[in-house]
Predict the structure.
Amino acid sequence: MSEYDIGKIKNDSEGDVHYGDINNFNVYPSAKEPLAQVVTIDSAPLPATHFVGRETELSYIREQIAQNAKLMLVNGLGGIGKSEICKKLFHDFGKTDDKIKHLGWIVFDESMKKTLYAKFRKTLDTTDLEENFLRTKLHINELSTKLLLFIDNMNAISAEDRDVLDSLDCNIIITSRLTTDYDNIETVSIGKLPEEDCIRIYKDILGRTSYDDEVIRQIVRRADCLTLVVALLAKTAKRANLADWKLLEKLNQKGFDLSEVRHTIADGKKFNEHLALLFDLSKISEEELLVLKQFSLFPPQPLEFVYADKWFGQDNPDVLNELADKGWLIKTDVGFYMHQVISDVVWYENEPSYLECAGLVEMVGKSLDFDVTDLFTSRLPILPFGEGVAEYFEREENEAIAYLLHNIARLHNSQGDYPIALEWYHKAVDICEKILGEKHPNTAAAYNNIGSTHFAQGDYPKALEWSHKALDVYEKALGKGHPNTAASYNNIALIHKRQGDYPTALKWFLKSLKINEKVLGKEHPDTATTYNNIGSVYFSQGDCRALAWFLKALEIRVKVLGKGHSDTATTYNNIATFYYALGDYSEAFEWCHIALEIKEKVLGKEHPSTIRTFNDMLRISEMI
Protein backbone atom coordinates (compact mmCIF):
# COMPACT_ATOMS: atom_id res chain seq x y z
CA MET A 1 0.00 0.00 0.00
CA SER A 2 1.21 3.50 -0.78
CA GLU A 3 2.52 5.69 2.03
CA TYR A 4 -0.22 8.15 1.14
CA ASP A 5 -3.25 5.91 1.58
CA ILE A 6 -6.31 7.54 0.11
CA GLY A 7 -7.98 4.16 0.39
CA LYS A 8 -10.43 5.48 2.98
CA ILE A 9 -13.25 5.39 0.48
CA LYS A 10 -16.67 6.85 1.03
CA ASN A 11 -18.77 3.98 2.41
CA ASP A 12 -22.17 5.55 1.94
CA SER A 13 -25.03 5.12 4.34
CA GLU A 14 -28.60 5.33 3.09
CA GLY A 15 -28.98 8.54 4.96
CA ASP A 16 -32.22 9.79 6.32
CA VAL A 17 -35.35 8.33 4.79
CA HIS A 18 -37.57 11.38 4.50
CA TYR A 19 -41.26 12.02 4.16
CA GLY A 20 -41.01 14.81 1.59
CA ASP A 21 -39.24 18.09 1.12
CA ILE A 22 -40.26 21.53 2.23
CA ASN A 23 -38.36 23.51 -0.35
CA ASN A 24 -38.00 26.68 1.69
CA PHE A 25 -34.84 27.18 3.72
CA ASN A 26 -36.06 30.51 5.08
CA VAL A 27 -38.59 28.93 7.46
CA TYR A 28 -35.77 27.52 9.57
CA PRO A 29 -36.09 29.06 13.06
CA SER A 30 -33.41 29.57 15.68
CA ALA A 31 -33.90 29.82 19.40
CA LYS A 32 -31.25 32.51 19.61
CA GLU A 33 -30.84 33.92 16.13
CA PRO A 34 -28.10 36.56 15.65
CA LEU A 35 -29.01 40.00 14.38
CA ALA A 36 -27.31 39.22 11.09
CA GLN A 37 -26.92 35.73 9.64
CA VAL A 38 -23.85 34.82 7.56
CA VAL A 39 -25.15 33.30 4.29
CA THR A 40 -21.83 32.58 2.56
CA ILE A 41 -19.92 29.36 3.18
CA ASP A 42 -16.82 31.23 4.38
CA SER A 43 -16.72 32.08 8.05
CA ALA A 44 -17.03 35.70 9.01
CA PRO A 45 -13.58 37.35 9.20
CA LEU A 46 -12.23 38.22 12.59
CA PRO A 47 -12.86 41.81 13.69
CA ALA A 48 -9.86 44.09 13.30
CA THR A 49 -7.65 44.33 16.38
CA HIS A 50 -5.78 47.43 17.62
CA PHE A 51 -7.93 49.53 15.32
CA VAL A 52 -6.90 53.21 15.33
CA GLY A 53 -8.73 56.10 13.70
CA ARG A 54 -10.76 55.86 10.47
CA GLU A 55 -13.91 57.11 12.19
CA THR A 56 -14.66 59.49 9.30
CA GLU A 57 -14.52 56.69 6.73
CA LEU A 58 -16.46 54.26 8.93
CA SER A 59 -19.21 56.78 9.64
CA TYR A 60 -19.54 57.69 5.97
CA ILE A 61 -19.85 54.06 4.87
CA ARG A 62 -22.43 53.32 7.58
CA GLU A 63 -24.47 56.36 6.52
CA GLN A 64 -24.39 55.30 2.87
CA ILE A 65 -25.56 51.77 3.71
CA ALA A 66 -28.34 53.22 5.88
CA GLN A 67 -29.42 55.24 2.83
CA ASN A 68 -29.41 52.08 0.64
CA ALA A 69 -26.22 52.80 -1.29
CA LYS A 70 -26.15 49.74 -3.50
CA LEU A 71 -22.48 49.53 -4.45
CA MET A 72 -19.45 50.97 -2.66
CA LEU A 73 -15.74 50.67 -3.44
CA VAL A 74 -13.27 50.94 -0.57
CA ASN A 75 -10.12 51.84 -2.46
CA GLY A 76 -6.51 52.24 -1.40
CA LEU A 77 -2.97 50.89 -1.46
CA GLY A 78 -2.03 47.46 -0.15
CA GLY A 79 -1.36 47.58 3.59
CA ILE A 80 -3.26 50.81 4.10
CA GLY A 81 -6.12 49.09 5.96
CA LYS A 82 -8.97 48.52 3.46
CA SER A 83 -9.73 44.96 4.54
CA GLU A 84 -9.36 45.89 8.21
CA ILE A 85 -11.93 48.65 7.78
CA CYS A 86 -14.34 46.18 6.17
CA LYS A 87 -13.76 43.55 8.85
CA LYS A 88 -14.61 46.20 11.41
CA LEU A 89 -17.78 47.07 9.48
CA PHE A 90 -18.70 43.39 9.08
CA HIS A 91 -18.42 42.90 12.81
CA ASP A 92 -20.35 46.05 13.64
CA PHE A 93 -23.20 45.37 11.22
CA GLY A 94 -23.47 41.84 12.55
CA LYS A 95 -24.06 43.12 16.08
CA THR A 96 -25.76 46.49 15.96
CA ASP A 97 -27.63 47.17 12.73
CA ASP A 98 -31.39 46.58 12.53
CA LYS A 99 -31.61 46.95 8.76
CA ILE A 100 -28.98 44.36 7.78
CA LYS A 101 -30.26 40.83 8.46
CA HIS A 102 -27.76 38.87 6.36
CA LEU A 103 -24.01 39.18 5.80
CA GLY A 104 -21.69 37.67 3.22
CA TRP A 105 -17.91 37.72 2.80
CA ILE A 106 -16.21 36.41 -0.33
CA VAL A 107 -12.78 36.94 -1.88
CA PHE A 108 -12.68 37.91 -5.55
CA ASP A 109 -11.51 35.14 -7.91
CA GLU A 110 -10.90 36.20 -11.56
CA SER A 111 -14.51 37.06 -12.42
CA MET A 112 -17.75 37.77 -10.59
CA LYS A 113 -19.42 34.58 -11.83
CA LYS A 114 -16.49 32.49 -10.63
CA THR A 115 -16.38 34.46 -7.39
CA LEU A 116 -20.04 33.73 -6.66
CA TYR A 117 -19.75 30.07 -7.69
CA ALA A 118 -20.59 27.72 -4.81
CA LYS A 119 -20.06 30.46 -2.22
CA PHE A 120 -23.62 30.63 -0.86
CA ARG A 121 -24.96 27.89 1.36
CA LYS A 122 -28.30 27.71 -0.40
CA THR A 123 -26.94 27.16 -3.93
CA LEU A 124 -24.38 24.37 -3.49
CA ASP A 125 -26.33 21.66 -5.30
CA THR A 126 -25.50 22.48 -8.93
CA THR A 127 -22.16 22.06 -10.73
CA ASP A 128 -22.87 24.17 -13.80
CA LEU A 129 -21.29 27.63 -13.53
CA GLU A 130 -24.10 29.46 -15.33
CA GLU A 131 -26.88 27.63 -13.53
CA ASN A 132 -25.17 28.21 -10.19
CA PHE A 133 -24.85 31.91 -10.98
CA LEU A 134 -28.53 32.23 -11.90
CA ARG A 135 -29.64 30.49 -8.72
CA THR A 136 -27.21 32.51 -6.60
CA LYS A 137 -28.46 35.75 -8.16
CA LEU A 138 -32.03 34.74 -7.41
CA HIS A 139 -31.12 33.95 -3.81
CA ILE A 140 -29.28 37.28 -3.37
CA ASN A 141 -32.14 39.25 -4.87
CA GLU A 142 -34.63 37.51 -2.58
CA LEU A 143 -32.63 38.82 0.37
CA SER A 144 -32.40 42.22 -1.35
CA THR A 145 -31.18 45.15 0.77
CA LYS A 146 -31.31 43.02 3.91
CA LEU A 147 -28.05 41.47 2.68
CA LEU A 148 -24.71 43.27 2.93
CA LEU A 149 -22.14 41.48 0.78
CA PHE A 150 -18.40 42.19 1.08
CA ILE A 151 -16.15 41.32 -1.88
CA ASP A 152 -12.50 41.52 -0.84
CA ASN A 153 -9.52 42.18 -3.16
CA MET A 154 -11.46 42.83 -6.37
CA ASN A 155 -8.50 44.26 -8.23
CA ALA A 156 -10.08 44.14 -11.70
CA ILE A 157 -13.62 44.90 -12.87
CA SER A 158 -14.50 43.78 -16.40
CA ALA A 159 -17.56 44.81 -18.38
CA GLU A 160 -19.13 41.43 -17.61
CA ASP A 161 -18.39 41.92 -13.92
CA ARG A 162 -20.16 45.27 -14.04
CA ASP A 163 -23.23 43.63 -15.56
CA VAL A 164 -23.23 41.04 -12.80
CA LEU A 165 -22.89 43.68 -10.08
CA ASP A 166 -25.73 45.68 -11.64
CA SER A 167 -27.97 42.60 -11.57
CA LEU A 168 -27.63 42.10 -7.81
CA ASP A 169 -30.14 43.89 -5.57
CA CYS A 170 -28.22 43.68 -2.29
CA ASN A 171 -25.83 46.18 -0.72
CA ILE A 172 -22.24 45.48 -1.82
CA ILE A 173 -18.93 46.76 -0.44
CA ILE A 174 -15.83 46.01 -2.54
CA THR A 175 -12.19 46.44 -1.53
CA SER A 176 -9.60 47.06 -4.22
CA ARG A 177 -6.17 48.54 -4.75
CA LEU A 178 -7.31 50.01 -8.05
CA THR A 179 -9.65 52.85 -8.98
CA THR A 180 -12.51 52.44 -11.46
CA ASP A 181 -14.50 54.59 -13.85
CA TYR A 182 -17.63 52.55 -13.12
CA ASP A 183 -20.44 55.14 -12.92
CA ASN A 184 -22.71 53.19 -10.57
CA ILE A 185 -20.22 52.80 -7.75
CA GLU A 186 -19.68 55.06 -4.76
CA THR A 187 -15.92 55.23 -4.12
CA VAL A 188 -14.48 55.70 -0.65
CA SER A 189 -10.76 56.34 -1.00
CA ILE A 190 -8.72 55.25 1.98
CA GLY A 191 -5.75 57.54 2.30
CA LYS A 192 -2.81 57.21 4.59
CA LEU A 193 -3.47 57.42 8.28
CA PRO A 194 -2.61 60.80 9.84
CA GLU A 195 0.94 61.02 11.13
CA GLU A 196 -0.17 61.47 14.73
CA ASP A 197 -2.19 58.22 14.62
CA CYS A 198 0.77 56.39 13.09
CA ILE A 199 3.09 57.78 15.77
CA ARG A 200 0.63 56.54 18.36
CA ILE A 201 0.70 53.03 16.84
CA TYR A 202 4.50 53.08 16.79
CA LYS A 203 4.73 54.16 20.43
CA ASP A 204 2.11 51.67 21.59
CA ILE A 205 4.10 48.82 20.08
CA LEU A 206 7.41 49.96 21.56
CA GLY A 207 5.93 50.48 25.03
CA ARG A 208 8.68 52.81 26.23
CA THR A 209 8.39 55.70 28.67
CA SER A 210 10.33 58.24 26.59
CA TYR A 211 10.60 58.89 22.86
CA ASP A 212 12.17 61.22 20.34
CA ASP A 213 8.99 62.36 18.60
CA GLU A 214 10.79 64.03 15.72
CA VAL A 215 12.80 60.91 14.89
CA ILE A 216 9.67 58.74 15.11
CA ARG A 217 7.88 61.18 12.80
CA GLN A 218 10.65 60.72 10.21
CA ILE A 219 10.39 56.92 10.56
CA VAL A 220 6.63 57.07 10.08
CA ARG A 221 7.09 59.22 6.99
CA ARG A 222 9.50 56.69 5.50
CA ALA A 223 6.76 54.10 6.04
CA ASP A 224 4.51 56.54 4.16
CA CYS A 225 1.99 56.19 6.99
CA LEU A 226 1.07 52.66 5.90
CA THR A 227 -0.11 51.11 9.15
CA LEU A 228 1.23 47.66 8.30
CA VAL A 229 4.74 49.03 7.64
CA VAL A 230 4.66 51.33 10.68
CA ALA A 231 3.91 48.30 12.85
CA LEU A 232 6.62 46.25 11.13
CA LEU A 233 9.24 48.93 11.73
CA ALA A 234 8.22 49.38 15.37
CA LYS A 235 8.46 45.63 16.00
CA THR A 236 11.82 45.50 14.22
CA ALA A 237 13.15 48.22 16.51
CA LYS A 238 11.72 46.59 19.62
CA ARG A 239 13.00 43.11 18.76
CA ALA A 240 16.52 44.34 17.88
CA ASN A 241 16.53 46.79 20.83
CA LEU A 242 17.31 49.64 18.44
CA ALA A 243 17.07 53.22 19.53
CA ASP A 244 14.80 55.29 17.31
CA TRP A 245 17.73 57.25 15.88
CA LYS A 246 19.57 54.00 15.12
CA LEU A 247 16.59 52.56 13.23
CA LEU A 248 16.29 55.78 11.23
CA GLU A 249 20.01 55.63 10.43
CA LYS A 250 19.70 52.06 9.13
CA LEU A 251 16.68 53.01 7.01
CA ASN A 252 18.69 55.86 5.50
CA GLN A 253 21.61 53.55 4.78
CA LYS A 254 19.36 51.12 2.91
CA GLY A 255 17.58 53.91 1.06
CA PHE A 256 14.26 52.84 2.54
CA ASP A 257 11.59 55.46 1.91
CA LEU A 258 8.19 54.27 0.69
CA SER A 259 7.00 57.84 0.16
CA GLU A 260 9.44 58.03 -2.73
CA VAL A 261 8.06 54.95 -4.52
CA ARG A 262 4.31 55.23 -4.02
CA HIS A 263 3.72 56.69 -7.48
CA THR A 264 5.31 53.60 -9.09
CA ILE A 265 3.51 50.79 -7.27
CA ALA A 266 0.54 50.15 -9.53
CA ASP A 267 1.84 46.65 -10.22
CA GLY A 268 3.26 46.19 -6.73
CA LYS A 269 6.77 45.42 -7.99
CA LYS A 270 8.58 48.49 -6.65
CA PHE A 271 6.69 48.34 -3.39
CA ASN A 272 7.61 44.68 -2.81
CA GLU A 273 11.21 45.35 -3.84
CA HIS A 274 11.42 48.18 -1.34
CA LEU A 275 9.75 46.37 1.53
CA ALA A 276 12.02 43.36 0.98
CA LEU A 277 14.90 45.55 2.17
CA LEU A 278 13.59 44.96 5.69
CA PHE A 279 14.41 41.23 5.61
CA ASP A 280 18.02 42.02 6.38
CA LEU A 281 17.16 44.75 8.85
CA SER A 282 14.92 42.32 10.76
CA LYS A 283 17.76 39.75 10.81
CA ILE A 284 15.58 37.00 9.38
CA SER A 285 17.38 33.67 9.74
CA GLU A 286 17.35 30.91 7.12
CA GLU A 287 14.98 28.90 9.29
CA GLU A 288 12.64 31.87 9.71
CA LEU A 289 12.75 32.61 5.99
CA LEU A 290 11.68 29.03 5.23
CA VAL A 291 8.73 29.39 7.63
CA LEU A 292 7.74 32.68 5.98
CA LYS A 293 7.82 31.03 2.55
CA GLN A 294 5.59 28.23 3.80
CA PHE A 295 3.22 30.58 5.63
CA SER A 296 2.84 32.68 2.48
CA LEU A 297 0.89 29.79 0.95
CA PHE A 298 -1.90 30.22 3.50
CA PRO A 299 -4.91 32.56 3.39
CA PRO A 300 -4.68 35.67 5.60
CA GLN A 301 -6.60 34.14 8.50
CA PRO A 302 -5.33 32.70 11.79
CA LEU A 303 -3.90 29.18 11.83
CA GLU A 304 -4.91 27.75 15.21
CA PHE A 305 -2.09 27.26 17.70
CA VAL A 306 -2.46 23.48 17.81
CA TYR A 307 -1.78 23.18 14.07
CA ALA A 308 0.80 25.95 14.05
CA ASP A 309 2.79 24.02 16.64
CA LYS A 310 2.29 20.73 14.81
CA TRP A 311 3.32 22.02 11.38
CA PHE A 312 6.05 24.51 12.33
CA GLY A 313 7.08 24.01 15.95
CA GLN A 314 8.62 20.55 15.88
CA ASP A 315 12.22 21.73 15.49
CA ASN A 316 11.91 25.20 17.02
CA PRO A 317 8.78 25.80 19.14
CA ASP A 318 9.53 29.54 19.34
CA VAL A 319 9.98 30.30 15.63
CA LEU A 320 6.44 31.58 15.07
CA ASN A 321 6.50 33.77 18.17
CA GLU A 322 9.83 35.20 17.06
CA LEU A 323 8.44 36.07 13.62
CA ALA A 324 5.39 37.66 15.24
CA ASP A 325 7.64 39.70 17.51
CA LYS A 326 9.54 40.88 14.43
CA GLY A 327 6.27 41.85 12.72
CA TRP A 328 6.33 39.37 9.80
CA LEU A 329 3.51 37.29 11.27
CA ILE A 330 0.52 38.48 13.25
CA LYS A 331 -0.41 36.66 16.45
CA THR A 332 -4.03 36.71 17.62
CA ASP A 333 -5.75 35.07 20.57
CA VAL A 334 -6.35 31.92 18.50
CA GLY A 335 -3.34 31.58 16.19
CA PHE A 336 -0.94 33.12 13.67
CA TYR A 337 -1.49 34.61 10.21
CA MET A 338 0.39 36.55 7.55
CA HIS A 339 -0.93 39.76 6.00
CA GLN A 340 -1.47 39.52 2.24
CA VAL A 341 1.02 42.36 1.64
CA ILE A 342 3.71 40.42 3.52
CA SER A 343 2.86 37.30 1.48
CA ASP A 344 3.35 39.31 -1.70
CA VAL A 345 6.76 40.52 -0.48
CA VAL A 346 7.85 37.00 0.47
CA TRP A 347 6.82 35.67 -2.92
CA TYR A 348 8.56 38.51 -4.71
CA GLU A 349 11.84 37.97 -2.91
CA ASN A 350 11.75 34.24 -2.13
CA GLU A 351 9.06 32.30 -4.00
CA PRO A 352 8.40 28.95 -2.26
CA SER A 353 9.58 25.78 -3.99
CA TYR A 354 8.03 22.35 -3.62
CA LEU A 355 11.27 20.92 -2.28
CA GLU A 356 11.17 23.43 0.58
CA CYS A 357 7.50 22.73 1.29
CA ALA A 358 7.28 18.94 0.78
CA GLY A 359 7.20 18.26 4.51
CA LEU A 360 4.44 20.83 5.02
CA VAL A 361 2.38 19.31 2.19
CA GLU A 362 2.59 15.91 3.87
CA MET A 363 1.65 17.24 7.32
CA VAL A 364 -1.30 19.26 6.02
CA GLY A 365 -2.60 16.28 4.04
CA LYS A 366 -2.43 14.03 7.10
CA SER A 367 -4.07 16.64 9.31
CA LEU A 368 -7.02 16.89 6.90
CA ASP A 369 -7.52 13.11 6.82
CA PHE A 370 -10.31 11.56 8.87
CA ASP A 371 -11.89 8.14 9.24
CA VAL A 372 -15.35 6.87 10.09
CA THR A 373 -14.85 7.33 13.85
CA ASP A 374 -13.86 11.00 13.49
CA LEU A 375 -16.10 14.05 13.25
CA PHE A 376 -15.13 15.64 9.94
CA THR A 377 -16.13 19.04 11.33
CA SER A 378 -13.00 18.98 13.51
CA ARG A 379 -10.95 19.33 10.31
CA LEU A 380 -12.87 22.27 8.84
CA PRO A 381 -10.83 25.05 10.55
CA ILE A 382 -7.73 23.98 8.58
CA LEU A 383 -9.47 23.34 5.25
CA PRO A 384 -8.64 26.83 3.82
CA PHE A 385 -4.96 26.25 4.65
CA GLY A 386 -4.98 22.92 2.84
CA GLU A 387 -6.60 24.58 -0.15
CA GLY A 388 -3.98 27.34 -0.17
CA VAL A 389 -1.15 24.80 -0.30
CA ALA A 390 -2.95 22.63 -2.87
CA GLU A 391 -3.74 25.50 -5.22
CA TYR A 392 -0.08 26.53 -5.30
CA PHE A 393 1.36 23.04 -5.83
CA GLU A 394 -1.44 21.19 -7.65
CA ARG A 395 0.71 20.89 -10.78
CA GLU A 396 3.20 18.81 -8.83
CA GLU A 397 2.31 15.27 -9.83
CA ASN A 398 3.13 13.11 -6.82
CA GLU A 399 1.31 11.03 -4.24
CA ALA A 400 1.53 13.60 -1.44
CA ILE A 401 -0.32 16.18 -3.56
CA ALA A 402 -2.92 13.62 -4.71
CA TYR A 403 -3.47 12.66 -1.06
CA LEU A 404 -3.93 16.31 -0.10
CA LEU A 405 -6.34 16.99 -2.98
CA HIS A 406 -8.36 13.88 -2.15
CA ASN A 407 -8.76 14.83 1.53
CA ILE A 408 -9.84 18.34 0.61
CA ALA A 409 -12.48 16.81 -1.65
CA ARG A 410 -13.69 14.47 1.11
CA LEU A 411 -14.22 17.40 3.47
CA HIS A 412 -16.20 19.38 0.91
CA ASN A 413 -18.28 16.29 0.16
CA SER A 414 -18.97 15.78 3.87
CA GLN A 415 -20.19 19.39 4.13
CA GLY A 416 -22.53 18.94 1.19
CA ASP A 417 -20.37 21.17 -1.05
CA TYR A 418 -20.70 18.68 -3.90
CA PRO A 419 -19.64 20.84 -6.87
CA ILE A 420 -16.44 21.85 -5.09
CA ALA A 421 -15.81 18.26 -3.97
CA LEU A 422 -16.00 17.04 -7.56
CA GLU A 423 -13.46 19.62 -8.72
CA TRP A 424 -10.93 18.45 -6.12
CA TYR A 425 -11.65 14.75 -6.67
CA HIS A 426 -11.02 15.06 -10.40
CA LYS A 427 -7.71 16.82 -9.76
CA ALA A 428 -6.71 13.93 -7.47
CA VAL A 429 -7.81 11.35 -10.06
CA ASP A 430 -5.76 13.00 -12.80
CA ILE A 431 -2.60 12.72 -10.70
CA CYS A 432 -3.35 9.17 -9.50
CA GLU A 433 -3.92 7.92 -13.04
CA LYS A 434 -0.64 9.46 -14.22
CA ILE A 435 1.66 8.30 -11.44
CA LEU A 436 -0.08 5.16 -10.10
CA GLY A 437 -2.11 3.98 -13.06
CA GLU A 438 -5.81 3.28 -13.46
CA LYS A 439 -5.60 -0.11 -11.69
CA HIS A 440 -4.17 1.14 -8.38
CA PRO A 441 -6.36 0.97 -5.22
CA ASN A 442 -5.75 4.66 -4.47
CA THR A 443 -6.99 5.58 -7.93
CA ALA A 444 -10.02 3.37 -7.31
CA ALA A 445 -10.70 5.19 -4.01
CA ALA A 446 -10.95 8.46 -5.93
CA TYR A 447 -13.21 6.79 -8.53
CA ASN A 448 -15.46 5.51 -5.76
CA ASN A 449 -15.72 8.84 -4.02
CA ILE A 450 -16.57 10.64 -7.24
CA GLY A 451 -19.39 8.13 -7.60
CA SER A 452 -20.49 8.85 -4.03
CA THR A 453 -20.62 12.57 -4.76
CA HIS A 454 -22.74 12.05 -7.88
CA PHE A 455 -24.96 9.79 -5.77
CA ALA A 456 -25.42 12.58 -3.21
CA GLN A 457 -26.43 14.91 -6.05
CA GLY A 458 -28.99 12.41 -7.34
CA ASP A 459 -27.13 11.68 -10.58
CA TYR A 460 -27.47 7.90 -10.35
CA PRO A 461 -26.23 6.92 -13.85
CA LYS A 462 -22.92 8.75 -13.25
CA ALA A 463 -22.74 7.39 -9.72
CA LEU A 464 -23.14 3.81 -11.02
CA GLU A 465 -20.54 4.37 -13.75
CA TRP A 466 -17.86 5.58 -11.34
CA SER A 467 -18.74 2.99 -8.67
CA HIS A 468 -18.39 0.08 -11.10
CA LYS A 469 -15.11 1.58 -12.30
CA ALA A 470 -13.84 1.47 -8.72
CA LEU A 471 -15.20 -2.03 -8.11
CA ASP A 472 -13.42 -3.45 -11.13
CA VAL A 473 -10.09 -2.24 -9.71
CA TYR A 474 -10.80 -3.41 -6.16
CA GLU A 475 -11.80 -6.93 -7.12
CA LYS A 476 -8.67 -7.35 -9.24
CA ALA A 477 -6.17 -5.54 -7.04
CA LEU A 478 -7.45 -6.34 -3.54
CA GLY A 479 -9.72 -9.34 -4.00
CA LYS A 480 -13.43 -9.94 -3.41
CA GLY A 481 -12.99 -10.27 0.34
CA HIS A 482 -11.41 -6.88 1.03
CA PRO A 483 -13.26 -4.18 3.06
CA ASN A 484 -12.85 -1.67 0.21
CA THR A 485 -14.51 -4.13 -2.15
CA ALA A 486 -17.32 -4.51 0.40
CA ALA A 487 -17.71 -0.73 0.56
CA SER A 488 -17.94 -0.64 -3.21
CA TYR A 489 -20.67 -3.35 -3.13
CA ASN A 490 -22.48 -1.24 -0.54
CA ASN A 491 -22.40 1.90 -2.66
CA ILE A 492 -23.60 0.12 -5.79
CA ALA A 493 -26.46 -1.31 -3.73
CA LEU A 494 -27.45 2.19 -2.62
CA ILE A 495 -27.71 3.38 -6.20
CA HIS A 496 -30.01 0.50 -7.14
CA LYS A 497 -32.05 1.15 -4.03
CA ARG A 498 -32.50 4.81 -4.93
CA GLN A 499 -33.56 3.74 -8.42
CA GLY A 500 -36.26 1.54 -6.89
CA ASP A 501 -34.64 -1.80 -7.75
CA TYR A 502 -34.90 -3.27 -4.24
CA PRO A 503 -34.11 -6.94 -5.01
CA THR A 504 -30.86 -5.96 -6.75
CA ALA A 505 -29.99 -3.53 -3.96
CA LEU A 506 -30.54 -6.20 -1.30
CA LYS A 507 -28.32 -8.64 -3.20
CA TRP A 508 -25.42 -6.15 -3.25
CA PHE A 509 -25.95 -5.18 0.41
CA LEU A 510 -25.80 -8.81 1.52
CA LYS A 511 -22.55 -9.30 -0.44
CA SER A 512 -21.12 -6.32 1.42
CA LEU A 513 -22.41 -7.53 4.79
CA LYS A 514 -20.84 -10.98 4.39
CA ILE A 515 -17.38 -9.43 3.95
CA ASN A 516 -17.77 -6.84 6.70
CA GLU A 517 -18.93 -9.31 9.35
CA LYS A 518 -16.12 -11.72 8.45
CA VAL A 519 -13.23 -9.26 8.05
CA LEU A 520 -14.18 -6.27 10.19
CA GLY A 521 -16.48 -7.88 12.75
CA LYS A 522 -20.07 -7.30 13.77
CA GLU A 523 -19.30 -4.16 15.79
CA HIS A 524 -17.41 -2.20 13.15
CA PRO A 525 -18.87 1.10 11.89
CA ASP A 526 -18.87 -0.14 8.29
CA THR A 527 -20.87 -3.20 9.35
CA ALA A 528 -23.32 -0.88 11.10
CA THR A 529 -23.62 1.11 7.87
CA THR A 530 -24.62 -2.01 5.99
CA TYR A 531 -27.15 -2.95 8.70
CA ASN A 532 -28.65 0.52 8.36
CA ASN A 533 -28.80 0.25 4.60
CA ILE A 534 -30.46 -3.17 4.62
CA GLY A 535 -33.03 -1.70 6.95
CA SER A 536 -33.66 1.09 4.47
CA VAL A 537 -34.40 -1.46 1.72
CA TYR A 538 -36.91 -3.30 3.89
CA PHE A 539 -38.48 0.01 4.86
CA SER A 540 -38.88 1.01 1.22
CA GLN A 541 -40.68 -2.29 0.61
CA GLY A 542 -43.00 -1.74 3.58
CA ASP A 543 -41.41 -4.64 5.47
CA CYS A 544 -41.42 -4.33 9.28
CA ARG A 545 -38.06 -6.14 9.46
CA ALA A 546 -36.59 -2.69 8.81
CA LEU A 547 -36.76 -1.69 12.49
CA ALA A 548 -34.64 -4.63 13.67
CA TRP A 549 -31.88 -3.71 11.20
CA PHE A 550 -32.01 -0.03 12.16
CA LEU A 551 -31.72 -0.94 15.85
CA LYS A 552 -28.74 -3.21 15.16
CA ALA A 553 -27.03 -0.32 13.38
CA LEU A 554 -27.90 2.09 16.19
CA GLU A 555 -26.47 -0.14 18.90
CA ILE A 556 -23.09 -0.31 17.15
CA ARG A 557 -22.95 3.36 16.23
CA VAL A 558 -23.75 4.54 19.75
CA LYS A 559 -21.15 2.16 21.18
CA VAL A 560 -18.36 2.78 18.67
CA LEU A 561 -18.97 6.28 17.28
CA GLY A 562 -20.88 7.83 20.15
CA LYS A 563 -24.35 9.27 20.40
CA GLY A 564 -23.19 12.64 19.02
CA HIS A 565 -21.88 11.34 15.68
CA SER A 566 -23.61 12.29 12.41
CA ASP A 567 -23.90 8.62 11.35
CA THR A 568 -25.67 7.86 14.63
CA ALA A 569 -28.03 10.74 13.87
CA THR A 570 -28.81 9.13 10.52
CA THR A 571 -30.03 5.98 12.23
CA TYR A 572 -32.09 7.95 14.75
CA ASN A 573 -33.70 9.69 11.79
CA ASN A 574 -34.46 6.41 10.05
CA ILE A 575 -36.06 4.92 13.14
CA ALA A 576 -38.21 8.05 13.32
CA THR A 577 -39.18 7.44 9.73
CA PHE A 578 -40.26 3.90 10.55
CA TYR A 579 -42.57 5.04 13.35
CA TYR A 580 -43.95 7.81 11.16
CA ALA A 581 -44.91 5.23 8.54
CA LEU A 582 -46.67 3.20 11.26
CA GLY A 583 -48.64 6.28 12.27
CA ASP A 584 -46.98 6.52 15.70
CA TYR A 585 -46.23 10.22 15.36
CA SER A 586 -45.31 10.88 19.00
CA GLU A 587 -42.66 8.16 18.93
CA ALA A 588 -41.44 9.43 15.55
CA PHE A 589 -41.13 12.95 16.93
CA GLU A 590 -38.92 11.80 19.82
CA TRP A 591 -36.47 9.94 17.57
CA CYS A 592 -36.39 12.73 14.98
CA HIS A 593 -35.76 15.35 17.66
CA ILE A 594 -32.65 13.46 18.82
CA ALA A 595 -31.39 13.28 15.22
CA LEU A 596 -31.94 17.00 14.65
CA GLU A 597 -30.12 18.01 17.83
CA ILE A 598 -27.06 16.00 16.80
CA LYS A 599 -27.01 17.32 13.23
CA GLU A 600 -27.38 20.93 14.29
CA LYS A 601 -24.42 20.54 16.63
CA VAL A 602 -22.17 18.48 14.35
CA LEU A 603 -23.10 19.52 10.80
CA GLY A 604 -24.59 22.96 11.37
CA LYS A 605 -28.05 24.27 10.60
CA GLU A 606 -27.30 25.00 6.95
CA HIS A 607 -26.09 21.51 6.02
CA PRO A 608 -28.45 19.77 3.52
CA SER A 609 -28.91 16.76 5.84
CA THR A 610 -29.82 18.99 8.79
CA ILE A 611 -32.34 20.88 6.69
CA ARG A 612 -33.93 17.63 5.51
CA THR A 613 -34.27 16.41 9.09
CA PHE A 614 -35.78 19.73 10.12
CA ASN A 615 -38.30 19.36 7.31
CA ASP A 616 -39.10 15.88 8.64
CA MET A 617 -39.78 17.42 12.04
CA LEU A 618 -42.24 19.81 10.47
CA ARG A 619 -44.03 16.94 8.73
CA ILE A 620 -44.34 15.01 11.98
CA SER A 621 -45.51 18.08 13.92
CA GLU A 622 -48.33 18.58 11.44
CA MET A 623 -49.60 15.07 12.23
CA ILE A 624 -49.50 15.29 16.04
